[in-house]
Specification:
This protein is α+β, with helices and mostly antiparallel strands. About 30% of the residues lie in helices and about 25% in strands. InterPro entries: Thioredoxin-like_sf (IPR036249).
Length: about 160
């Protein structure tokens, strides 16, 4: 499902803009997390490695966290200083994407279309999203899975509060 271009994402520093403005120059490669669940915590190390693999590409790598800015900083700790972080406390972006489970890995092109999405953690599904990003950005994909990545697991309900 393609997100509404009008849905507002707020960066950790408080810069709130509609999605279409965040997409003017770069695609979005987003890992969407619910900081109130173990499942989102389990994937943090892997998500950082995957997003780090796309740094420098035409994709703006980021985390979208379904909480306030203060809660996002507390959940992510030092990761919040290493990546662009958007806060989606009312889950408007999550709803706009039609996500059913978190964590999720989503690729949104500059034209606002979702080109790939994986919900929960399954290395094969995340690899497919990473392949799409790599092909779109003429970039190499990080390896998935690697030793130390968690085993597959279902996510938690994306629209739970």
């Amino acid at each position: 499902m393609n997100p509404s271009p009008d849905v507002v994402l707020t960066s950790l520093d408080g810069d709130a803009r509609p999605l279409e403005e965040w997409l003017t120059t770069f695609h979005l490669a987003s890992v969407v997390l619910d900081p109130y669940t173990n499942e989102s915590a389990w994937i943090l190390k892997t998500a950082c490695r995957v997003l780090d693999g796309f740094r420098g590409s035409d994709a703006r790598v980021n985390f979208v966290v379904t909480c306030s800015r203060t809660e996002a900083r507390a959940f992510l700790g030092p990761i919040a200083d290493d990546f662009l972080v958007y806060c989606d406390p009312d889950r408007a972006f999550v709803k706009s994407l039609g996500l059913q489970q978190l964590p999720a890995f989503v690729f949104v092109r500059t034209d606002g279309t979702v080109q790939g999405a994986a919900e929960g953690w399954n290395a094969t599904e995340w690899r497919a999203v990473a392949d799409t990003i790599a092909a779109s950005c003429a970039w190499s994909r990080p390896n998935l899975p690697v030793s130390g990545d968690p085993g597959p697991f279902h996510g938690t309900p994306a629209l739970a509060s």
